[in-house]
């Protein structure tokens, strides 16, 4: 496969490093989500805990995948990482979209359905959600890079599809 085979050990180290880098970002997002509460005299308590599950799963998976990438006895099939990385990358992207929409509604409200702005009354809550969003964006970018790396690892084992050259087509036509 040319020059890419020489980079496979570097690719493995990059993969391992990104997986380890994901863990603190996901744990920090979990910590922010668990501790993000604000009480308002007029409206009561507001808390945000729906963000915990996917971050816990992705942090656990990142740790498992980082360890198993160096221990061949745990997982030897590259396609298992490929499928898991693809699924988690897409789940992280959809959760990012949900968090962005939630923040948009918290800051702007929706006058059509009579939702008022929450951030006017819960400023600390919204600023912590912006921090969680920033951490989540970094985690999503890391998972997207991991999805590309795992796809490369799986598909580099196969030959590229045969594409006939123009000269061959012309010779066959005559």
TrEMBL record:
It is a multi-pass membrane protein. Pfam families: CASP_dom (PF04535). It comes from the Eukaryota. It is found in: Cell membrane. The keyword Cell membrane applies. The chain crosses the membrane at residues 16-34, 54-75, 87-107, 131-152. The keyword Lipid biosynthesis does not apply. Its main location: membrane. GO terms for cellular component: plasma membrane. Residues 10-142 form the Casparian strip membrane protein domain. Keywords: Cell membrane, Membrane, Transmembrane, Transmembrane helix. NCBIfam families: A_tha_TIGR01569. Homodimer and heterodimers. Belongs to the Casparian strip membrane proteins (CASP) family. This is CASP-like protein.
């Amino acid at each position: 496969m040319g020059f890419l085979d020489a980079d496979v050990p570097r690719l493995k180290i990059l993969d391992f490093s990104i997986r380890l880098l994901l863990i603190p970002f996901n744990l920090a997002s979990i910590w922010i989500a668990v501790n993000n509460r604000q009480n308002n005299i007029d409206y009561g308590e507001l808390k945000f805990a729906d963000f915990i599950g996917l971050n816990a799963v992705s942090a656990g998976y990142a740790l498992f995948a980082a360890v198993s990438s160096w221990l061949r006895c745990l997982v030897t099939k590259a396609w298992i990482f490929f499928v898991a990385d693809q699924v988690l990358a897409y789940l992280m992207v959809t959760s990012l979209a949900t968090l962005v929409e939630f923040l948009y509604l918290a800051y702007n409200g929706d006058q059509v359905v009579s939702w008022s702005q929450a951030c006017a009354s819960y400023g600390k809550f919204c600023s912590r959600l912006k921090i969680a969003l920033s951490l989540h964006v970094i985690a999503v970018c890391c998972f997207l890079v991991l999805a590309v790396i795992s796809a490369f690892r799986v598909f580099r084992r196969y030959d590229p599809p045969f594409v006939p050259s123009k000269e061959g087509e012309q010779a066959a036509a005559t």
